[in-house]
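So, can you check what follows?
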Amino acid sequence: MTTLTSLLAQYDLVRQATMALTQALSDEDCCVQSMPDASPVKWHLAHTTWFFETFVLERFELNFKPHHRAFRVLFNSYYNGIGSQHPRPRRGLITRPTLAEVEDYRSNVDARMAALILIAAALPPARVAELVQLVILGLQHEQQHQELLQTDILHLFSCNPLQPAYATGDVPPVARVLPLEWQQYQGGVIEIGYADDGFCFDNELPRHRQFVEPFTLASRLVTNGEYLAFIEADAYRNPVLWLSEGWDWLQSQQLTQPLYWRQIDDQWQEFTLHGLQPLDLQRAAIHLSYFEADAYARWADARLPSEAEWESAVASQSQKHASQSLLQLFDTAWQWTSSSYGPYPGFRPSADAIGEYNGKFMVNQYVLRGASCVTPVDHSRTTYRNFFPTGARWQFTGVRLARSV
């Protein structure tokens, strides 16, 4: 059970972790938007603060007064129930407030949140429970933005002719890649969805039954070396391998390789958080769209797993022999599934603006499972449902293959 004291400590840790991610950035780095799907670092810092001010302080603080009335619009992402939003593609034009003023905004809201949590014990138990639930949701939301902040800055730096590195120090070594093995699962009636007592997002509920046919799942993710073979097989020019919409997407953008791959003097390189690096054939292939993942799977005489297959296989992990374990589940890349992002049977979003958090996006997107190397370590679980549109490539997304038995 979360106490108010532990809640405040957790709040401080998450908020400090966000600011730590900005320490290597200049003011200019924090204000630029590299594409419509990305957001400036400054906007992430302000929006996560806006969340606590709007959904917690406004509900609970006596004599509530917003830090700045214009921030209600500037830093609202997509909550129509709250009111107007500044257009997402134009977030990079918000040169005012300055980064320093956004940091003051964070400090102001943090102080007010601490004061609220410290006196919350005087509230009726139902109100305390509501407060705790909303603060935890806000912290989980901020952890999502910690990952987005890094993916967005990676894209921004990739557009810079100087090709700067975000991360300092040496590139972490990668473990020797083990031969790919196919782990077999019997299928049948399984249960998926969150079932524990801790936090989960509403899209992980309710737990329910599904039927899956027998299947096999790859023991690890597809590597750069394996994906390079796909490229060298001229797969980006073979329409047979691609979904119709994927082929149109490919042709319209004239794509021939993953987002951050570069071929310089006949040598493959990859732009990473550590800057431009020689392509490591042992590392997992990442920053792949659903279209690329699906085409590779077809070329490899395989397919993408459904989210029910992925979850049931991972849930049974503890029952398997160590030599049969699934690798790279939560520490490398989000893994595309073949499942369209939609509601579970019996799903009911909240009636207020918080209900817009997940439910309104349940169309034209696909589910990803697992977690990535930039996901906060305590922000992953077997039932977590990430989701992106088919053409998204700037996230840390990779491929785990499946086959029907």
Remarks:
- The longest strand covers residues 334-340.
- The two ends are 43 Å apart (CA to CA).
- The domain at 4-158 is CATH 1.20.120 (Four Helix Bundle (Hemerythrin (Met), subunit A)).
- Residues 297 and 303 are 5 Å apart (CA to CA).
